[in-house]
Write a structure and sequence with these properties.
Residues 1-22, 49-76, 142-258 are annotated as: Disordered. This protein has helices spanning 25-58, 61-192, 207-221. It has 258 residues and is mainly α.
Length: 258
């Protein structure tokens, strides 16, 4: 007796997944393959049902063979549907991984952008704080340098003023000495120009007698600075005969008497 195929409930078609923001082409291909396999299985199950009805009515060998072939094809199609479901599950899993990766990348990118904005703000604040500290320290250092320069300049000015005062004092002293010397010189000139006793006008003495008197006077006075000659022109020849020089007086304690 031929084995009668059990009546099989029609497999429910899987509900179409909600369209994602960006559906993977692999998932779409798997869904289409599953849909085609399911349609083929549904059609084959209709043929199996008809073949079963014919075999029940006639119970001939040909009818039984047709039923067996229809069940075999239905079995192959069920295997294809199962395989299509597996492929669709795998594609969905891979697509979920892809979507998770893309979401993670988007989240990381967004986080990086936020961190970059925050870093820019923090950097601006840090630069501002550093600039304030740097300017404060620099102002302190510059003030110290300016104070040292002022002190040095004051010392230099003080030294220059002292030097100028010393120089001015020396110049005043020199000018006073010069004025004093000039006054003294002027006084001497005034004394020389003072009128003396007028000489008697008479007969000039002979040159020989005047010469003898001059020599006697020179002998009395001793050697000394010669007076400037008032005579202009060539000086007269000195006489060969000179008066004996007077014996120099001894200075100090007189010798003991014998």
């Amino acid at each position: 007796m031929a084995r009668v195929a059990k009546k099989r409930k029609q497999a429910k078609r899987p509900a179409k997944a909600k369209a994602a923001a960006a559906v993977s082409p692999v998932v779409t291909k798997a869904e289409k393959a599953l849909e085609a396999a399911t349609k083929s299985l549904d059609a084959q199950m209709d043929r199996v049902a008809k073949a079963k009805e014919r075999a029940q009515k006639s119970a001939t060998a040909a009818a039984k063979k047709a039923l067996t072939n229809a069940n075999g094809k239905a079995k192959d199609l069920r295997a294809k549907v199962t395989a299509a479901k597996v492929e669709l599950s795998k594609a969905k899993a891979m697509d979920a991984v892809r979507q998770a990766e893309e979401a993670a990348k988007a989240k990381i990118s967004e986080m990086a952008e936020k961190l970059s904005d925050k870093a820019d703000k923090d950097l601006a604040a840090a630069v501002k704080a550093f600039e304030a500290r740097w300017r404060k320290a620099r102002a302190k250092a510059d003030a110290k340098k300016v104070k040292a320069a002022e002190k040095k300049a004051k010392t230099k000015v003080k030294a220059a003023a002292k030097k100028a005062a010393t120089k001015a004092k020396a110049l005043e002293k020199k000018a006073a000495a010069k004025a004093k010397a000039e006054a003294k010189k002027a006084a001497k000139k005034a004394v020389k120009k003072k009128p003396g006793r007028p000489k008697k006008v008479g007969r000039p003495k002979k040159a020989v007698a005047e010469k003898g008197v001059t020599e006697k006077a020179a002998a009395k006075k001793g050697p000394g600075r010669p007076k400037k000659s008032t005579r202009r022109g060539r000086p007269p020849k000195a006489s060969t005969a000179q008066a004996p020089a007077p014996k120099a007086k001894r200075r100090g304690r007189p010798p003991k008497q014998k």
